[in-house]
Amino acid sequence: MDNEMYLKEIEELCEMKAKEFGILGYEDVQKEDIWGCVSASYKGDFPPLHQWVNDILSLKPNKWMSWMMVQALKEDMKPFDEN
């Protein structure tokens, strides 16, 4: 499997997780949000594929909500000239 195929599979997993969150009442979650939350914990080199899959499938709404709150706070903390 090459990298393009891996990325396609990861994208599909993120989309499935976003749909799962939608069923749980978080209708506005997008696959990009899932990937942003999961990939935020990766520093430097990306982990092996099995860890990506595990991190996506085991993501819980409370972790995602905490990550979204941090992102919102970071956006609010930007200097005035960047807004």
Description:
The chain is an all-alpha fold and about 80 residues long. It has one domain. It is about 65% helix and about 0% strand. Helix 1 packs parallel to helix 3 and helix 2 (about 30-40) crosses helix 4 (about 60-75). The longest helix has 21 residues, at about 5-25. It is globular, with a radius of gyration of 14 Å. The mean pLDDT is about 90.
* Annotation, overall tally of beta strands: 0
Relative strand content:
under 5%
| Global shape | globular
How many strands, which pairing sense, and closed or not: the largest β-sheet? none
Mean pLDDT across all amino acids: 88
Summarize the structure.
The protein is mainly α.
Sum up the structure in keywords.
66% helix, 83 residues, 4 helices
Mind sketching the topology for me?
Blueprint: H1 3-23, H2 31-39, H3 49-57, H4 61-76
